[in-house]
Amino acid sequence: MSAPTSGTTPYYYVPGVSHHPIWAAAGLFFVVLGAGNWVNGHSWGMWSFGFGLAWWAVVLYQWLRDAARESEAGLFGRKIDLSYRWSMSWFIFSEVMFFGAFFTALWWARAHSIPALGSLDNSLLWPEFKAAWPSISPGATTSPAGTVEPFETVGPFWLPTINTALLLSSGVTLTIAHHALRAGQRAKTVGWMWLTVLLGLVFLCVQAYEYHHLYTELNLKLSSGVYGSTFYLLTGFHGFHVFVGMVMLLVITLRLQRGHFSAQRHFGFEGAAWYWHFVDVVWLFLYVLVYWL
What is the pTM assigned to this prediction? Predict the structure, then answer.
């Protein structure tokens, strides 16, 4: 049943034909196209990236607006709620596998690839190669052919540690907001949600400052061998996920201010909270494996 009868919630609501998925895919196409060319030195990539991001944001706003209207119209019953919960669970599981692949690449490079290249079997191909991670000393690299410019590595102090404190604090404020919502304290919920969004924004600003410092002062770039590529892939993709999670929380906060959700029915809030806590946990692994080890 796809439409309510006599003012009751349908058993299972099926929305009409939507143009949102295809337009969102088109926006992301320009984002990926622009980002790929931007990092490879093509100046027009920056404009393609910005255009695609703006396009995607407009489509996302319209999509979320329609979904919120359907929810507030009472069209989402128990089956839809269950469907959303399973969908969010599988989405987060796919993200776990996504980051798991990058963490595995980092481990494989450190534990297998570099020792193998420095073994006797490869001594004729790479006679001057030293199997050290990531460099033999600050300001030097193990690149025997000089293909990797000298760079300095990154430690946990102080910016990464500050960001760790920010994310952990945001997890606490989000949990407080959740308990306030379940207690029916909407004003308190909104206040703690805005604080959570602010902490996420500060995290991104600190990471942007860190990237500028690494590029300009430590000469650490994507081209800085496997260390640079894995560092920026892990931290960069995590930063993107923080941005997406912050957008989720912002949308939920604005909906709370409009009177959406109740103490009994608020999976939109819970789904965003699941994702944010996932982002927190990934950062803890990243903080230890990338910055400390």
Answer: 0.86
